[in-house]
Design brief:
By secondary structure, the chain is mainly alpha-helical. The chain has two helices and three strands, in the order αβββα. The protein has a three-stranded antiparallel β-sheet. α1 packs parallel to α2 (69-88). The radius of gyration is 13 Å and the shape is globular. The termini are far apart.
Length: 89
């Protein structure tokens, strides 16, 4: 069973942008991120580049090249989990 179950369709840019927004809202809800005045732009995808003020996605900065939407989704999840784990220490 894939992440897309039960629809079993390919991920699209809007799926990942919504996923990033949900992860961002979880961090806000847990008071682990204040939004930094950038709440309007958790993640935007143009071509093979993700633009984000919220997620560093392994390379820092605002612009992040990626190979696949699945890879990008996993990077967002990993970063969200790491932020939560770091604050538990």
């Amino acid at each position: 069973m894939s992440w897309n179950y039960p629809t079993e369709r390919k991920l699209n840019n809007k799926d990942i942008e919504s996923y990033a927004q949900a992860c961002f809202e979880i961090l806000l809800g847990l008071e682990l991120y204040d939004g930094g005045g950038k709440m309007y732009d958790s993640l935007t995808i143009v071509g093979k580049t993700a633009h984000s003020y919220v997620f560093d996605l392994k390379d820092g900065g605002r612009h992040h090249r990626f190979e696949s939407l699945e890879e990008l989704k996993n990077d967002i999840l990993e970063e969200t989990i790491n932020i939560i784990k770091e604050t538990k220490k």
